[in-house]
Amino acid sequence: MATAARAVELAVVHALRERTGGVAGGRVVVLVGAGNNGGDGLYAAAGLARRGVGVHVLTTSEHPQAGGLAALRGGTARLVPLAQAWPAQALRAVADAVGPADVVVDAVAGTGVTGGLRGVAATVVAATREAVEAAPRPPVVVAVDVPSGIGVDDGALPGDVLPADVTVTMGVAKPGLLLPPATVCAGRVEVVDLGLDLTRRTPAAARLTDADVADLWPVPHREDHKYSRGVLGVVAGSDRYPGAAVLATSAAAPLAGMVRYVGPDGAARHVLDARPEVVVGSGRVQAWVVGPGVGDDDTARLRDVRRALAEGLGTVPVVVDAGALLALPERVAPTAVLTPHAGELARLLSAWGRSTSRADVEADPVGAARRAVSFTGATVLLKGATTLVVGPSEEGVAGSSDGTGTVYAQADGTDWLATAGAGDVLAGVLGALLAGRSADVMAHPPLAARLAAAAALVHGRAARAASAGGPLVALDVARAVPGVVATLLAPPLRTGPGGRMPG
Ligand SMILES: NC(=O)C1=CN([C@@H]2O[C@H](COP(=O)(O)OP(=O)(O)OC[C@H]3O[C@@H](n4cnc5c(N)ncnc54)[C@H](OP(=O)(O)O)[C@@H]3O)[C@@H](O)[C@H]2O)[C@@H](O)CC1
Ligand SMILES: Nc1ncnc2c1ncn2[C@@H]1O[C@H](COP(=O)(O)OP(=O)(O)O)[C@@H](O)[C@H]1O
Asked: What is its EC number (predicted)?
């Protein structure tokens, strides 16, 4: 408890310094429920009061943790018991305290809550949210362990939640902090190291970091030639959507040893205009991308798609996107990576007899992605503001009860990435990465999910680089990818004593 409470206290101190330039004299409201989460809030409140912070502690339970209450005694923190107050009085107390606050700490409930908050806790959280939103200068919200009331295991939002700017979480990032829709309420997630040994657990959800991606990325060696680095075959584009072919091949060309393009003459000319390095026509490849810019009623293009699927599935990794998704055989290996957006996933699930709308997928993206994995055996990358990747669970490793593995939840992009053709760029990045690690993926198919998550991270970072906070087009994202990979692979600058580079 001491480590957790201290981490919360320090997060608040940091927020106060950033906002007010100091700590003493800052105004902090701590919402406290029953249990250990509330206890962490109480100890943090006591520590803040000792630093000269003006602290209001609003308790939503009649029985806040005794040790924490004792720590407050004798200090300057003001305790306001809301559980015993009349509802109108309680709501006024919340509004009066939260409106002028610099920081609000949400220590109402932790991982023990299922199905959303109830009673006083729910009312107080809803009122706090309203007061935060109405404040002329909204306070910084710090959540303890999780924003109270989120679905800790599945990322659901079953009721009122106070969205946090920072979540100080204990030991390990809980799945609900990473998974949509709740992930948007978590803000920046700071994991407090409690010294737990987590190496033998398969996490339900995970997020790759830059360092993970650097480890996964194939780097050419002195003995390499273009074929050994991996050749990517791309079946993309059509007379209707030639641009998708340009976008997918432009993203892939700098990353792969070679890109072979298969598509109509018109699109091929555009591809060569943009990327003369691309080789037109089929040949031996180490991975395929099939489907970007292929309409699902385009008979001629679907013939190329089916040929590539017949040649590639089970032999090399295959990215199956857009129009190719409905051309997929019933069962495939995890080395096939499906890359639908929510609308495409809804259509796929419906085609397999599970009538599903886009809204259904958006309401439960993790469940929908897991269902698609169970139906097909494929790895599924569901595109969105948070992109999810999940494959079948590894043999001999305990996973979810439906036979699916860890869900990677990558939120590395920017909302400016919601633009036509961005998905075609992602398909190119992922295809090139799979071509570079083709033999490893075929030897160990669960690797496909980690690589797909890595591609999503690089794609998101490239979007941020291209955007620099403003608008972008998909081709800008493709152009930013090599620089992002270079930055990820650059060895960290280590400074020696005195800040100088070691000699
Ligand atoms: N430069 C290129 O070459 C590009 C090529 N691209 C390629 O295009 C192909 C099709 O992919 P896609 O995802 O766009 O189509 P798809 O999943 O069928 O969704 C259609 C759904 O959208 C909806 N909808 C349409 N307009 C709407 C509106 N204004 N406002 C709201 N909703 C609207 C429409 O809904 P409805 O109008 O039916 O209600 C329907 O449900 C694919 O091969 C891709 O690779 C793209 O990457 C783009 C760049
Ligand atoms: N709000 C958002 N924030 C971040 N990334 C987004 C957002 N909306 C979409 N994206 C990303 O943009 C891409 C859109 O892909 P897709 O829907 O297939 O578009 P298209 O078919 O036009 O290429 C995906 O990689 C998705 O993850």
From this structure: 4.2.1.136
Q: Which residues of 182-195 are buried (b: 16+ CB within 10 A; e: fewer)?
A: bbebbbebbebeee
Q: Is 359 annotated as a binding residue?
A: no
Residue range 158-213, pLDDT digits in tens: 999 999 999 999 998 999 999 999 999 999 999 998 877 665 567 889 999 999 99
ipTM of predicted assembly, 2 dp: 0.88
Distances (CA, A) of 362 to 105, 180, 367, 392: 29, 9, 10, 21
Q: Give how far the C-alpha of residue 317 lies from the chain's centroid of Cα atoms, to the nearest Å.
A: 23
A 10 A CB-CB count for 364 gives 17
Is 384 assigned a ligand-binding role in the annotation?
yes
Domains and CATH numbers, the chain: 2-201 (3.40.50.10260), 210-489 (3.40.1190.20)
Q: Contact 434/290 with Cβ under 8 angstroms?
A: no
| Structure token pair of residue 496 | 């020696």
Give the long-range contacts of residues 77-82, CB within 8 A, separation 24 or more. 77/30, 77/45, 77/46, 77/48, 77/49, 80/56, 82/58, 82/120, 82/124
What is the greatest pairwise CA distance in the chain?
81
Handedness of CA 145, 413, 386, 398 (dihedral sign): negative
> Is residue 384 lining ligand 2, measured as CB closer than 6 Å?
yes
